[in-house]
Amino acid sequence: MNVFANFLMALVSVFDTLLTLYFWIVIISALLTWVQPDPYNPIVRVLRNLTEPVLHRVRTWLPFVNIGGIDLSPIVVLVGIQFIKIFVVQSLYQAVAGMG
């Protein structure tokens, strides 16, 4: 592989890692809604700031994700992340591997 292909492989790997990290952030944020943590806790605020813009967008686009008071938007986001990891990231890995 040439240097450019290695650089692209590193970028794809970082993107994959960031998606995995965000996956876990969404899970932790969803679990926190069950225990009603202190909203002024800095960790809770960071988690909310990282997840709420995406979850709000999902709730806006798909109004049916709130069924009987149960918010399913985190599940939609998690499925979306998995789709991106399986389809987009794997396709990028294969494209970069083909460059070498």
UniProtKB/TrEMBL annotation:
InterPro entries found in the cross-reference section: CCB3/YggT (IPR003425)
Record bears the keyword Electron transport: no
Membrane-spanning parts: 7-32, 61-84
Gene Ontology CC: membrane
Assigned keywords, A-Z: Membrane, Transmembrane, Transmembrane helix
Pfam families: CCB3_YggT
PANTHER family, per the entry: PROTEIN COFACTOR ASSEMBLY OF COMPLEX C SUBUNIT B CCB3, CHLOROPLASTIC-RELATED, YLMG HOMOLOG PROTEIN 2, CHLOROPLASTIC
Family: Belongs to the YggT family.
Protein name: YggT family protein
Organism: Desulfonatronospira thiodismutans ASO3-1
Species lineage: Bacteria, Pseudomonadati, Thermodesulfobacteriota, Desulfovibrionia, Desulfovibrionales
